[in-house]
Amino acid sequence: MKQHSGALGRLATLKLLAQRFAFLSLVMASFALMLLGKADTVLVERIRLVVEDALAPILDVMSRPAGTIADMVSAVHDLAALRAENVRLREENIKLLHWQTVARQLDNENRSLRSQLNFIPDPDPSFITTRVIGDTGGAFVHSMLVNTGTREGLRKGQAVIAGEVLVGRIAEVGARVARVLLVTDINSHIPVLIESSRAKAILTGDNSDRPRLNYLSPNTNATPGDRVVTSGHGGAFPPGVPIGVVASVQDGIVRVEPFVNRHQLEYVTVVDYGLAGVLPSDAAAAEGRER
Amino acid sequence: MKGSLWKRMDLWVRQILPAGSTLLLILVNVMPTRLPGFAPVAPLLPLISVYYWAVYRPELLPPPVAFGLGLLTDIIAGTPLGVSPLVYLLLLGMTSSQRRIFSGRSFLVAWWGFILMGTACMVLQWGLVSLVFGQALEFRSVLFELLMTLSFYPLVSWLFARAQLALLKRA
Fold first, then answer.
1. Angle, vertex CA A49, rays to CA A40 and CA B74, nearest 5
2. Are A261 and B35 an interchain contact pair (Cβ–Cβ within 8 Å)?
């Protein structure tokens, strides 16, 4: 009897040891994955995309009711703010009409000057508009999933805009889903210009809602209210896409308030500028293999 | 025959409830809410799920399952691969070893437990992500996300308790 319970006890100890071992090896596996993510980004990205592609239909369906609820909420808001909104729009319309006249004049002038100079215009971009199916909220990553992929011609590095303003760039692209890295993400670096002074800088996200302007030449001074637009350097983005305004300048750190309203993004537009992105595009190679 | 089929289905549903509900919360977490200002501080709902089941039914959420769920979280949310598996595993391990303190007590004790564990998890995740990215993330937004997660605990745990009563306590 004593022997029997001793054997059982040993068995239990062994089982506990096995469980501890399994737990520890899983913990080690987590660390190994983190290292792998640093070492072999291509492999890790491929794993991500396979899973994301498989989940895309589910996320697509789940994102629809959220849109409906948001529509209802905004409908109520709109009704309440109708009168004030009307007054504001009237004022804005007067201003815009003025701007329209100015723009026409400038357009004419520009066209005549271009013809005199034999100016070769930038290639016309083409656009793909796609629905946002996932918004990975939270403090760690600022990205979104859209339900368009290589099948529709998306490529890594393309600029993503909403209306006229920059949202981010395509960071990963699968067959039917792509991840948009927002300008506020810690891994986002975008070559920009301060519109008025034409000073170049790199807009770097840090996961706060106001990205920083880095590498701004020391003899230029940014003042709050200056508009920041893409510079088009590096060939990734079309030039002149508005991003935001300088919000604060403190101790040499310039922060930019982006124009984009993250919660309002239901559809976004991917700009194919006809130029190769900053990142080597493995999607194009994969496309070639498929054919 | 019919009875046994139902029984098997019943058993299957019961066993899949912890993992299934965590999976659901992972997917809900990336749903675009379109609420102004919500996205940057969206709560990490799966943490609540892992904690809840670690307290009440740890045998239904074994470490390999938690690892898999963590992997899926990282893939969908775009966080560096390996961060969430580690966080879920440690949350599961810590909580289930201390579960005698939390389970069978009042709701407030369980919530208090989650406040401790959730804070530890969030700090750990902040450290790991900062390490992988090679620069310290802003802690303020992590703090807000933590507060959101902690305040969502009552709602989610109430839903889980209903599900647990309906599915797990029967028979």
1. 75
2. no
User: How far apart are alpha carbons B157 and A146 in whole angstroms?
Assistant: 31
Q: Which CATH class is domain B2-167?
A: mainly alpha
Residues A112 and A185: their CA atoms lie apart, in Å, by 42
A186: how many CB neighbours lie within 10 A of its CB? 22
Interface predicted TM-score (ipTM) = 0.83
Interface membership of A132 toward B (CB under 8 Å): yes
For chain B, the average pLDDT equals 87
What does the domain layout of chain B look like in residue ranges? 2-167
Per residue, the 3-state secondary structure of chain B, as one string, reads CHHHHHHHHHHHHHHHHHHHHHHHHHHHHCCCCCCCCCHHHCCCHHHHHHHHHHHHCHHHCCHHHHHHHHHHHHHHHCCCCCHHHHHHHHHHHHHHHCHHHHCCCCHHHHHHHHHHHHHHHHHHHHHHHHHHHCCCCCHHHHHHHHHHHHHHHHHHHHHHHHHHHHHCCCC
Q: How far is CA B5 from CA A190, B11, B170, in A?
A: 59, 10, 17
Give the whole-angstrom CA distance, residue A179 versus residue A165: 18
Neighbour count for residue A229 (Cβ, 10 Å): 18
From A153, A181, A147, select the one nearest A167 (Cα to Cα): A181
Residue A244 bridge partners (DSSP) = A228, A258
Predicted local distance difference test score (pLDDT) of residue B2: 55
Determine the Cα–Cα distance for residues A277 and B1; give it in Å rounded to an integer.
Answer: 62
pTM of this prediction? 0.80
Instruction: Please state which of the ranges A94-108, A161-175, A206-220, A268-282 shows the lowest mean pLDDT.
Output: A268-282
CA distance B154 to chain A (A): 20
Chain A, window 178-237: residues with a beta carbon less than 8 angstroms from a chain B beta carbon = 179, 186-187, 206-209
